[in-house]
Fold this protein.
Amino acid sequence: MSYVGDGSPERLCDSFLQDGRLVFAAVRDDGTVVYANEAVRNLLGYEPDEIVGRNVLELLQPDDVERAGLALGSVDGGDLTAGITRFTALHKDGTWRLIEVFAGPVSDGVEELVGIYARSGADHVFMEEILSMLVLGMPRAAVLAPVCNAIEWRAAGSHLAISWEDEEGFHQVDTGLPHGLGGGDGRGGTPWADCRKARGADSVEGTAADLDADLSALAASSGVSEYWIRSVSWSDVYGNATVTVWTAGEKYRPRLHAYGMSLAHDLVELILRWTHQVAEMSRAAMLDPLTGLANRREFFAALDAHQGGALLYCDLDRFKPVNDRYGHAAGDALLRLVSRRIESCVRDGDVIARLGGDEFAVLCADATLSDAEAVANRVRHAICQPFVVDAKRVDISVSIGIAASAADLNEDVLGMADRALFEAKASGGARICQAALAGSASKR
């Protein structure tokens, strides 16, 4: 043994064995525990003498017992399987805890034993959990929740909170903290509000005494006293997210969790950016890239989701000459202007889609033919007003077919609106035709 310190190398070895975070245990090949160090208290809540004499298989989840028994049986001849494996073990408080185990043959000078080295597996498996949930497209809050295991909060009596704002408001996931102690309530005038500002503080540290009376009392009732907040920049639209570590007292200070905080910060940024990009791509897949309206796919999805209402099928009159005379860029610009005018004419909740070319459709949920006709008249009037494209005046009009149904809005109803549109075009354009139940159309 090499040692250059001033103390006792034997005492140092004993401290490594007893005071470290790694559980050392020795068991016979039948599973009987003959030795366990002090670290078993931190891992599973038992005193060493509560473990010694018991069969280690009794502490494992039933599904793990056979696999563990096979591993113990392979110790003969030193042929124990190498590497780390995971088991689910029973904590003294009655909960199940994931542990990571590696083992090898040891001896006390009299008998050959199996040396077991165990540690918590929770803080190593959460990365796999996060990646799996990202791949499966799980909700943002569900993916962020396991990040709380980036710090060993249970052993230190600490707590972690992650808060962020998105289109649905403020959110928080945590290890048991009220939203006021993690920024999830969106309050102003707090350290979390400072960190949320785009140009605000990147990191804030303090104690419960630094907060207002309400939050200070909340911290006291939650058993925490010191905090460390880091901001996470992830969106140009919303404020920074925050990661907060609270500790319980003088023995453990927030900076003790510097590694866990750094890991949590990076994971929160990755998850928020990833889920935001996925949502943007999903949204883009439902939009017409030229006009920003719903595309054909999204429109038919909206049809499936609605019962009762009316459909408008619109086709621009004299659009092709614009393309022929001024070019396709001018035609695209005109389609964007048309889209904005249609948007100004519909009711709240109506779905507008560009079905292709210069064809548009409007889904008017719960609308009668009279309601739909009022929308159609507004659209026709708006489109008939002159447009200015590339400093040139452009005059077009629109033909509209209307169909309504008290039952499902489906492709059959859209087909009726399409036939009504054909009659409107055949009558000279710039007209509105209503589809009758028998398939004929009335003109206006």
Notes: The mean pLDDT is 89. Residues 124-283 form a domain with the Beta-Lactamase fold (CATH 3.30.450.40).
